[in-house]
Specification:
This protein is of the alpha+beta class. The chain has helices at residues 2-8, 17-44, 47-56, 115-121; strands spanning 64-70, 73-88, 95-105, 110-114, 123-135, 142-148, 154-158. The chain is built from four helices and seven strands.
Length: 163
C-alpha cells in the first residue's frame, strides 16, 4: 500500500535558482515602474478630488504627506480672489487663464499672485507625519493634525492643502 502511494505521487518540480532570480528581478522592475507611475499620477492629480476621496476613505490617508513652501515659508492654504476664466489672446490665438489667488503662510502673512505663478513657484519640501484627523461638526470639512519631520512642530492643515 505504501508502495502504491509512492508510485502515485509525482516527483516535485525543482525550480532552478537562476529562474527564481530572473523572476524576482522582473517583479522588482515592475514594482519600480508602478511606483514611478503612481508618483506621476499623484503629482498630476486634482488635489480637490483627492481631498474628497480621502475624506470619504479616512483609513486610506497617507501616513506621510508633503507640505508646500515658497521661499522657505510654509503654505497653510490659499483661496481664489479673482477668476476671469479662459480667454484667447488676440493676435497669437493662444488660450490662457487669468486667476488670482491669495496664499496664506504659517507666519500669518499672505500675498496675492497669479495661480499659474503659484503653480510654478511652490516646492513640496517639507515632510510631515499624520498624527490625527479633525472633522468640523458644522461644515464636515476635515483637517489633518501633522508633525513636521524636520523639526517636530505640530500643525493643523486642511486635507486639500497637502498631497
Amino acid at each position: 500500500m505504501v508502495e502504491e502511494k509512492l508510485k502515485e505521487e509525482k516527483p516535485k518540480e525543482v525550480v532552478k535558482e537562476e529562474e527564481v532570480k530572473e523572476t524576482l528581478k522582473m517583479l522588482l522592475g515592475e514594482i519600480k515602474e508602478l511606483k514611478k507611475d503612481r508618483d506621476i499620477l499623484m503629482q498630476s492629480a486634482d488635489k480637490r478630488a483627492l481631498a474628497r476621496y480621502y475624506s470619504r476613505h479616512k483609513e486610506d490617508l497617507p501616513p506621510i504627506v508633503r507640505l508646500r513652501t515658497i521661499r522657505g515659508k510654509l503654505i497653510m492654504g490659499w483661496k481664489m480672489i479673482e477668476d476671469k476664466g479662459s480667454y484667447q489672446i488676440p493676435g497669437t490665438g493662444k488660450w490662457t487663464e487669468s486667476q488670482t489667488i491669495e496664499v496664506i503662510y504659517q507666519d500669518g502673512t499672505s500675498e496675492q499672485m497669479a495661480e499659474l505663478e503659484f503653480e510654478q513657484r511652490y516646492e513640496k519640501s517639507v515632510k510631515a507625519k499624520r498624527i490625527g484627523v479633525i472633522t468640523d461638526d458644522r461644515t464636515k470639512q476635515e483637517a489633518l493634525k501633522l508633525a513636521r519631520l524636520d523639526n517636530g512642530e505640530e500643525i493643523t492643515i486642511g486635507v486639500q492643502f497637502v498631497n
